[in-house]
Amino acid sequence: MVEIGPGLGALTGQLLDADVTVTLIEKDRNMVAWLEEKYSDPRVELFHADALDFDLRKLHGKGPVKIVGNLPYYVSTPLIAKFTSALSPASILVLTLQHEVAARLNAKPKTKEYGAMTVCTARRWTVDYLKKLPPTVFFPQPRVASAVVGFRRKTAEEVLPCDEGVFEALVRRGFSERRKQLRNLLSAFKGQWVELCAGLGVDVSVRAEELALGQWEELVRTLAPSEAQSAEEEFDEVDEDDQVLGPKSRESVHVNNLRHRAVHILITNALGELFLQKRSLWKDRNPSLWDSSTAGHVDAGESYSQAARRELREEIGIECVLEGIGRLPCSENTGWEFIEVFHGTHEGPFQLAPLELETGAFFPRDQVRSWVRDHPEDFSPIFPRCLSLLEESAQGSALRVQKEPKST
Question: What is the pTM of this model?
């Protein structure tokens, strides 16, 4: 459990009674001193930090995460955005919010509370208005009513695939001037507007607040069509010696468990941190699991090194010098792939491919090691073996440096 703003620890005590480990994020220095004295418990991890500035990477590697908190009302909106973001490891949040914010999160189309925040949050989260709280239950008493709101992260089956960046941009543009018709706010699509509205089953004079979540998603899918992968992609089928037999479709390769080729690329920065990608919800293999910086199949007619450079460009939008650091033999454990593993250095920023990657971030190498050890279920089955190759390569480089003769 992660508690935002524990204050004097009234809720913290209840959480510890439930026999869970607790991470506390508290901004007030005086409260931190109180909490350190009151909860000197090995199950409690305490961060003296502003939750808005807190590094979400610190919450990874601890298993399933649930977040609770009585949020400061003046920063509740950005805090919700942060802890429901793609990088957040939370599966459930239970938050006390200002009633007005809670009403907006749980609003229905064609109401004044329904807005961009409603639609963008509902894209990935089911939001439930759980309980209204009067000012009298707080000390000191606020001037407004409050509410408890629950958030549950949606499964892949509940989320329609579409480009997240385009979705959020269109929704925020559409609600930027509520009184205007969408065709005037989304003027770039005026030539298609009649056809678009017919497909959505709405009038051409529709306003943003009249479109339900599913209609916004269909609008984005029409204007920016994309897919996680195509069954018609072609890979080279290879024999037990990794010799090419001929091209086959992705579907044929996977359905028939044919031997083929793949690459994994591990990118580190100057601090030695390792960039990990979280695979998209809609990938056909290992969806929503953490993986190497980039990974993908070798297309028909490509070499391993050509595929590695292409995957870098397509998945994270960079180019860098790559060094081969090892090879994994083809077996049932690799999904019948011969895998070549490469390493490169880059500081970012990265341009993550829509529908391919959920999110990505640099993580300290020590944290990655312990995360893989404690929660291997969070990773694709190939990644730990790729990490081992990177560690072996680093150790080998260190030994070579030690053996070089000193100049006289």
Answer: 0.91
